[in-house]
Every structure is written in structure tokens, then in C-alpha cells.
Amino acid sequence: MTDPKKMKKNKEKSEKIGVYICYCGGNISDHVDVEKVREAAEKFPGVAVARTNSFMCSDPGQELIIEDLKNGVVDRVVVASCAPSLHENTFRSAITRAGANPYIYDHANIREQVSWVLHGDKATYKAEKLVAAATGKAGLLEPLDPIRVNARKHATVIGGGIAGLKAARVLADRGLEVVLIEKTPFLGGNAAGLDTVAPLGEQCSALIAELAKGVLEHTAITVLTRSEVVGFNGYVGNYNLQVKTTLSSSSAFDKAAGHVVPFEGDNADTPTEQNVKTGAVVLATGFRSYQPKTGEYGFDDHREVLTLPEFIKQLSEVNCSGDILELNGRKIRAMAVIHCVGSRQIPGIHEEDENGYLNEYCSRTCCSSILHAANTVKEQFPKTNIYDLYRDIRTYGRGQEELYDRAARNRVVFLRFEAGNSPTVSANDDGSDYALKVTIEDGLTFSEEIEVPVDLVVLATGMEAGDVSDLVSMMKLPVGTDKFLQEVHPKLAPVEMSVSGIFLAGTAQAPMNISEACNGAAAAAVKTASLLSKGYLELDPYVAAVDQDLCRGTGACVDACLADGALEMIDAETENGTEKKARVVPALCLGCGACVAVCPTGAIDLKGWSLKQYEAMVDMIVADELIDI
Amino acid sequence: MSDKNKKKNKNKAEQERKEDMKRLREERKSSIQRAATMVKTQRKDLKVLMKQMGSESATAPELAQATGMDVAQVIWYLATLKQYGEVVEGAKNGSYFTYKLVVKEPEEAVA
Amino acid sequence: MTDGQTITCDALVVGGGIAGLQSALDLADQDFSVVIIEKDLSIGGKMIRLSKVFPTLDCSSCITTPKMASAAHHKNITIYTWCDLKELTSNKGSVRARVTQKPRYVDQDKCIGCRKCEYSCPVYVPDPEQGGFCATKAIRIPFSNAIPQTAALDPESCMLCGKCEKICPTGAVDYFQKPFDFTIEATTTILSTGFEMTTIEGKPQYGDGKVPNVVTALQMERLLAPHGPYNRVLRPSDGMEPDSIAFVQCAGSRDKSMGIPYCSRFCCMYAIKQAMLLSGALPLADIYIYYMDIRAFGKGYEQFYQTAKAMGIGFIKGKVGRIEEAENGSVAVRFEAQDGTGVTTENHDLVVLSLGVLPDWSPEGICSVSTAEDHFIQTVQPSIGPTLTSRQGIFVAGAASGPKDIVDSISEAGAAAMEASNYIIAQGK
Ligand SMILES: Cc1cc2nc3c(=O)[nH]c(=O)nc-3n(C[C@H](O)[C@H](O)[C@H](O)COP(=O)(O)OP(=O)(O)OC[C@H]3O[C@@H](n4cnc5c(N)ncnc54)[C@H](O)[C@@H]3O)c2cc1C
Ligand SMILES: Cc1cc2nc3c(=O)[nH]c(=O)nc-3n(C[C@H](O)[C@H](O)[C@H](O)COP(=O)(O)OP(=O)(O)OC[C@H]3O[C@@H](n4cnc5c(N)ncnc54)[C@H](O)[C@@H]3O)c2cc1C
Ligand code: SF4
Ligand code: SF4
Ligand code: SF4
Ligand code: SF4
Predict the structure, then answer these.
(1) Same-domain pairing of A8 and A137
(2) Which chain C residues are closer than 8 Å to B42 by Cβ?
(3) Could you say which of A249, A400, B87, C321 would form a disulfide bridge with B81 (CB–CB 3.0 to 4.6 Å)?
(4) What is the pTM of this model?
């Protein structure tokens, strides 16, 4: 690790800064005059070369940097392109490939911060300013070494649904120790309430049983049911989870409540708390079924209106013969299913919930699931008429369009409605003995208003994000506007969360069906395995460092520090005898700089983000004469 | 090896290569012929097109009309010449963009 | 690499599209050794040819090139492009692939990608990488961010004039290059062979490829791409900037009579994306999408669709029955409105077909993995092991097992890499 003393001595600025400016196809160059920025940059102090490329992140772009470094033309690198979150690593590894230290690099974001928000001269001006600032800082950059920490070959999976089971199993097969934490007494999650499932009609309990067996029989997996995480600290590779296990009797979960129970292992008789030391966490906390509001399509007002999960459960318990479905002794001569209940809500059309939220997303699984249920009914009880009221039929996946075709062949009657013109469900008043009547303006027949009398209405209720607010605040997890947990980037880092070492599996992230949840889980597992399988990790060295000569041991920094344990006072032997000095624990330091601000002697500073570097950036920003406006 | 020998060897190698090339040409006779015919048409088209463009800028339909070429063919050549830096796009004229030759020796493209 | 050589590795990845690259990276990051074989001149698959990608509208290059570059530079990954997989057999914890290296007529070790040969070559050939809208040369670097940046000569269009050989600064051009075979021995394989699209040709109702200004969605991606053929959106018949553009959805999909009964899954979303990009590029143009159902099911997709609607893109519920040439390069689109109001015809300047998706590779005669009725590779545990094929130790990821967008392909690629890792470990290697 770099000695702070050396940092100070090495005061001279680099005179060999290379500036590389990206067109980003046209994403940047359509708004920023990139060549003008290059010309300006060439004149900034310390800049040896300034170059442009249509995609700096491409191989030819990276090659520019590598060539210059190898030829000794430059010894500091500034790339002006998209947000560093996208490609900082790309450029760092290019620099490493050239044999240089990856931390001699600084980044100017001239896409998200410039070309996407400004146009014309203003954009070019701001781009020049950002590049100027980056060169100012780059001149003072020092080679740094990453912080190497040991990583536990141990992962914790939170949530024992389909995704959690899959993740636990493949992680254990990979050779990691695994703890699976499930808050209910059951494994299987929401899927445990399903009967046969779309698209293939497999028995869901069999799928869960197979997954659960693989987990329960695996010697490397510890399953903690009725358990929740109540405390969380540490850092990537070395997290500590406080896990609380409650009593069976205190559990609010009833075996009869529709849970298929493949797991009978709940035998703890005293509430316990334990500490789980782990390397990484996979969040598989799943979803919650949407619960319609009272009066929404007649829900709660009419007992003949069911949600899809309720209907699936009742259907699975049916044991009548004949060609008309009977539920609880009632003949269902006609039924209507309504799609998109609690999903695809549109501002201005749908009513927000008490917190002002709308579920604007599609729940992805309900179309297939309800068509599967409709087919199940029709193929057993052909005389039960089914009206399917939909906005779009979303049978996108393998085997799903067949469900739609089959439903049409089974003579399910399809009626189409617009979001702004939803059907209504009301008590039937036409004198017949149908309990309900559904009214719709059918988009498939000249928007004619149609009334259908029915015995039953099933609402294709969608998914909502599970309530994991405790985990969100404990682990500082990002949540999307749809309230599901938010990945870093859907394509670059699709199962990673911004907190390093925490991954997303299954419907905790977004609605998915079983197959997609399993893919998400295994994808999260492979990232976990890559992270932990070496047994050590390298962290960015942007942490505080104390200049022992300047430190007077006031401890102001320790009081200001935001991370538990990142700073401590030690007894150091100096020429004046034993003195109190501050010491940084690099792996715990957040690099936030709270300590830097309070140190009376300026003894503590951040590596890679020093005060001097900030000053140099500001100097360059205010140096207007450098920029040709 | 003496200089003379070296030279001799070189000559021999050259001779062999010539033979090889001959054989290859024979092998690829039909595709070479096809390509050659294609190039002939392309050269002719390009010559006409570039002559018409001269120093003026013009739209694809204008060039098509003036040269009697198919307008789809004209835009195909223009796009190509633009890719290879021979032509630049100019101002818009109605719904069509105009194109102009880059002032430099155009021999590379027609050669 | 030489003729007859055998290369050994932990995992072989067949197909270097986004799925294959992601699988390879996820394996290599765990220190498994990986070989990728790719049949094309460059890795990157369809994605590197796209403009911007839904739902975030990131530029496709910005996401793909770094993955391509990290795979190409990864110490545990070796990539062979321009390869032909002849045979793939699996047996007791090992797989064996017989591969032919096709000739580029350019020495890959010598070529520095300077493009001097390309500039000097006199033969113009329609550039498949630009939808055929402009030409490339008989010898060329396939496209600007291709990996590897190695030229290749197309012997079908070359007239052996000798110019490229003469101008090449490194003596890389080699007219006599021959194909040769090599063998890869691995513990496991991931098939990530992706998809291709059906053609307009053979679909008389859509004009059979003979109606000008009817383009495929992949061609539209090129028109919208930063380094596209025109660097803007123009009508290919005459270079006019179009005022009215229409998208025809399910063009060949969800229709048994056209051979594809299933849904091609990502065309709704890319049509909406292209429509949005068009309305940015041509703010005055009218843009319509003819559709039956809009399938915007992924994370953020429905919101993307609603944004497009709010931007004024016209969504017309109807099945297009016929596409014909109209006056002045316009295209007449005849459709049956879904509300039962009958058949209507509208004229547009440019029409984009969302054609059906087919597998890019058939294992028939090469490898004994089974395919399903839809011809994509069959998965034997579709619900809880979606990447497992009928052969132990052979896994599948991405569009090779049915159409899948990038997000789903990447997720599945990670999953396949996990299963493959565990398979390697189970073999005790
Ligand atoms: C009505 C309906 C019908 C469906 N039909 C089908 C179908 O036919 N085919 C199909 O493929 N898919 C179907 N699905 C989707 C399927 O249910 C999901 O894909 C699957 O259940 C997702 O599993 P999961 O593990 O992601 O989430 P979940 O099943 O929600 O599991 C999450 C688990 O985490 C636990 N948990 C949550 N928070 C915590 C915490 N803080 N600590 C500890 N544990 C916690 C929960 O108790 C639960 O056990 C349907 C969904 C619905 C709503
Ligand atoms: C017009 C269009 C626009 C799209 N836009 C978007 C979008 O905006 N967002 C989005 O998420 N998705 C989009 N998609 C979908 C996206 O293209 C796919 O999700 C993605 O390409 C799938 O990746 P893949 O790696 O599975 O397949 P591919 O991209 O097809 O890659 C497969 C690779 O395998 C190679 N290969 C095939 N057979 C062999 C063999 N036998 N040996 C060696 N190599 C072989 C191929 O050459 C290819 O390189 C779009 C698709 C189209 C058609
Ligand atoms: S899957 Fe179907 S029913 Fe469910 S929200 Fe989406 S469109 Fe509506
Ligand atoms: S030899 Fe062939 S590829 Fe080379 S320049 Fe001549 S025509 Fe082009
Ligand atoms: S073959 Fe020769 S001329 Fe062509 S790109 Fe490669 S190095 Fe340059
Ligand atoms: S994704 Fe949309 S356009 Fe494509 S086949 Fe499916 S429904 Fe049709």
C-alpha cells in the first residue's frame, strides 16, 4: 500500500497526461463538439496528448490508451465518456494490460452529465470544464494498490421460495457453505400455493419437492426456517448477519392456509438468535400477491369474485364430476376472468393506493397462468363458459402461445378492453339466477357494449414487491420506482446490487415465472461464486490514510467516522514515547471523507481523492482563460 | 549461401509463386470473371456519377435523372462513397439530402 | 494454432453472441479455462449490430463492446472466430468438438487492422453488416468495432488483382490460405448459438422482398445505428427522408400458415424502441405500429410502452394482410382492423417488418442434443433447470433455446455458467 509520506513527497505534477475523448457513436458528439474539446484539452497544463475515438470502450479505443502508455507518451490517463459506473473498470483493465497501475486514471462524465442534458455551445463548454478538472486531478494521481481482504467461502440466501432454493442448491454444489434463511415455517414460497403450473402443467408441489430435497439433503446447506435477519454489518466477503429464529407456536403461518408443506423440519422450541458469518448475500425474498381494493371489480362486495390465487386453490380442491364446474356446491355455468388486475396501471386512469403508488408494470405471469387455469376448467368441464377479458394477451415464452391457442380451441370467449375503459362487475339484475353481471365495451366487435351474466369472476391479480423494508434499511439497498429491488444495470450487472456482495434472485427483482426465477437465482449464484471462490477479494483503495507525523491524536476523526470500526486510536511508539494516533481499517472505510473534514492538522486524507486533488480540480474549473468560449 | 545462389533461389520462388497464382486463377476462374464484370459496371457507373457531381451538390433523384441511372442505385453508391470518405452530405433540399464530392484526387475510388 | 492440433479446456462455448460471452466471462471469472468458437468473423452476435437497446435505450455498442473486449482479453478465455463446428460429441464427463478454421485469406497474427487493403480493393460488394444499403469491399474489416480487428477476403467477389497483397504493410494477405481442422477437448459445453430471422422472400403477402422500402427490423437497426449506412434514416429506394413509417408486428410469427406458431418474444419491444428512436431522429414523422397484442412483459417494459404511446406513436390494432407497392416509392399496407370495422389500406414511406425468429443453428448431424417441435434446442427441466439439455454436460443459454431478449439471455447465460461450473466440479476436475 502506498505510504502517505511518499504521497506527499511526490509533489510534482505529471506532465504526461493523456486525454481520451469518446464520441459514443453520436451519443456525445451529436451535442458536444468533441474535436473542440480535444483541441482545448491539448493546451491544458500537463497534457501530453489528447485523442478522440468513436467508441473509447471498444478495442481500438482502448488500444489508443495502451499504445500511449507502452510508448511512454503518457503516464496519467483521463477518459471523457459515459458515466464511470459503466466503464471505469473497462479503462482500468486496459491500463493494467499496458503494464501500468490502474489508479493513475480519472474519468470525466461527458455523456450523462453533459450530452444527455445540454446542447450546443453549453454542452461543449461544460465538457471542456469537466475534462479540465479531470486533468487537474490526474496530474496529482499516484499509483495505488487495491486492498486485499480474505473472503469467506460462505453465502447466505434470504428467502426459501423457488429462487432461494435454487440458489442455495447450486451454491452448495459449487463448494460454498450456505445458510438459507426463510421467515415462514415452509419452503417453496408463493409457488407452494399453486397447483399445476403454466406453461407445461407440471405439478408445482413436485417441482418444489425436488428443489427442497436437494437443499435439505445437502450437507453444506443449513436451513433456518421461521428466521429473519435482524442485524447486518461488515463488508463484502466478511458480512455478519444477526438471525433471529422464532417459536413454532408464535408463527402466524398456518399449514392449512394453502401452503404445500414439503418441509417438516421446524423443530426449534426456543426462540434463538445467532450470528451468521458470511461472504455474500443472495436476496430471494420474492413477491406478494396483489390484494384488490374493496369494490375493485366487485371484490369484497361479491363473494363470487375471487383472486387468481384463491381460484387456483379452490380449483385444486374440486372433486365433482359432470361437465360443469362446481365450486363449494355452486354450479359455475359461466365465469369471467379479468386480466391485469393491480398491474399495468396508468397515471390519470387508475386510482393510486393510499401511498400514492401505482403498479405501472406488467406482472408477466398472470396471462399464462390464467389461460392455463381456463384450459384446466374447459378441458374438464366443457360446459362451463369462460369469458376472458383482456388488454393484451402476453403469452410470450416457450409453450405459452400454445396455451392461448388451446384456450381459443377450448372455446374460451375473448373480449378486449382498453385501460381507460375497464369492464365493470355488478350484481345481476336481469331476473336470471346468475349472481353477477360483467359489462364490457368489446374492442373486438366495434366497441359494442356487452353484458355477460356469470356465476364467478376471477381477477388475474398480479405481483407486488414483497415488504423487505427492514432489509432495505439495514443493508442500504436501492429500490426501484416499482418498489422491487433494483439491480445496478439490467444488462451490465443484472443481478448485482450497488452494495458489493449482495445479489438478487427471482421475483424480489421483478415479476418472473418459475423458470425465469430459477435462471435469475443461478445467475446470482454464479456471481457469488466468482466473488468468493478465490478466498480473497480486492477492494478499491479509495480509503482514508493517516499521516503519522501530523496526527496529534485528538480523535476527532474517530468521532466523525460514519462506519463502525473503520477508524481507531492506537498507542504508537514515536520519538516522544508512546502517543495516541489514529489508524484506519481499510476494508471498513467507506471513503466518505467525514474524517478529513474534521482533522485539525490535516493529517488524514483520502487516497485517490485528496484535498490537493480537489483543489487542483477547482483551479482548473475556474481557469476560464484555458477555455476558448 | 552465395549471393548468386540466393538470387537464384529467389527467382525460383518467384517463379513458383507465379505458377501458384496461375493455378489459383484457374481454380477461381468463374468467380474472378463475375467480379471483374461487376467491377467494370461499377467503374462505369461511378465515372458517370462522379462526373455528374463535379463540384456541385445534388440530391439522389437529381443525379439519377441527370445520369439515367436508377435512383436506388445512385443512393447506394452515394452511401458507399460516403463511407469511404469520397462524398460528404450537404444541406437538405425538400425531403432529400444533397451530396458533394470531397475535393481530392478521386482516382482511388475509380481506379 | 495448426492443422490437427488439439486444445483442451474446462468449458467450450459455442457461439460468441451476448449469451455466449456472458457465459464465458462467468466461467472464466471463476478461473475455469474457456474456449469460445464463433462461426462469424467477429464475436458479438446480433447485439453488436443493434442501435440502442430497450428498455434503457443504452447504445448497444456501449454495452456489448466492453463485454467483447473483456472476453477477448481475459486470461482464461481463448476465442476462435470464423469457425465451423463439424462435430460435437459428449461422453462420460468430456466433450469433444471437431472444428474447421475457415480461411480468411489474411494471416490473423500479422494483420494490424489498418484497412489499407480494404481501401485499395476495387470491388464493391453489398455490405451485409449495413443491411446491404451500401457497399463494402471484397477484402475488409467486417465492421468498425469487430473483434478481432482482422481483415477477411471474400473469394466469391475477389478478382485476384493483387492490390491488397501489395499494399498490406505487414504482408498479412495470403491468397493461398486453406481451411484446416482442429479439435477441442473440454469437460462441458454451453450452446449459445442464438437466432436468425425469417426472410421477406417467400412471403408473398408482404411483397416477397420485391416491394421497395419494405425493410426488416435488423435493417432498421442499421438505419438507426451511429455508424449506419446513411448516418441517418432514409428511404433506401431514393434517399428520401420518410414522413410516415409503419411497423408490422408478428410478421410471420404466431401464424402457423407462415411456419412459426410461437411468439418471437422481443419484436414488440424492439418495434417500440425503434419507433421511439425514429421519433427522436425525425420529430415530424408519423409513426405507426400495427399489432395484435403488445407484449411488454419485462422489468420496465410496460412503462416503456406507455411512454411511447404518450410520445404520440400510433398503435393500431390490426392484422396486416397484404403489403404492396404504391406510387412514388410509397408502400400500401392493407390491414384488418381488430375492432371488426373491416379492411383498410394506408400508405407509408417506409415499412418495417418484425419478422419471425428461428434458431441460427441446428444440431442435426453434428451433435445429439434434441431439439423441440419449434426447432430450438430442447430443455429437459424447463421449469427448475432451464439450461439443461438432453445430453448431460451440455447446457444451453440465450436465444438458442427460444427467442429471448438481452436481459433474459444474460440472466440465462449466467445460469448456464453456474450449471456448467458445477458439472466441471462434479467431474472432479
Ligand atoms: C397467481 C399466480 C400464479 C402463478 N402461476 C404461475 C405459473 O403457472 N407458472 C409459473 O412458472 N409461475 C407462476 N407464477 C409465478 C411464481 O409463483 C413465481 O415465479 C415464483 O413463486 C417466484 O419464486 P421466488 O422464490 O422468487 O419468490 P417467492 O415465492 O415469493 O418466495 C420468497 C420467499 O422468501 C421468503 N421471505 C420474504 N422475505 C423474507 C425475509 N425478510 N426473510 C426471510 N424470508 C423471507 C418468503 O416467505 C418466501 O418463502 C404465478 C404467480 C402468481 C402470483
Ligand atoms: C431487430 C432486433 C432488435 C433487437 N433489439 C433488442 C433490444 O433493443 N433489447 C433487447 O434486449 N433485445 C433486443 N433484441 C434481441 C437480441 O438481439 C437478443 O436477445 C440477443 O441477440 C440474443 O443473444 P444470443 O447470444 O442468445 O444470440 P445471438 O445474438 O444470435 O448470438 C449467437 C451467436 O452464435 C453464433 N453461432 C451460431 N451458430 C454457431 C455455430 N454453429 N458455431 C459457432 N457459432 C455459432 C452466431 O454467429 C452468433 O454470433 C433485438 C433483436 C432484433 C432482431
Ligand atoms: S401478464 Fe397479462 S394479465 Fe398479467 S399484467 Fe401482464 S398483460 Fe396483464
Ligand atoms: S486481390 Fe481481391 S480482395 Fe485483394 S484488392 Fe484485389 S479484388 Fe480486392
Ligand atoms: S490485411 Fe494488411 S492491409 Fe489489410 S487490414 Fe490487415 S494489416 Fe492492414
Ligand atoms: S413479440 Fe409481439 S410482434 Fe413479436 S411475435 Fe410476439 S406478439 Fe408478435
Answers:
(1) yes
(2) 123-124
(3) B87
(4) 0.94
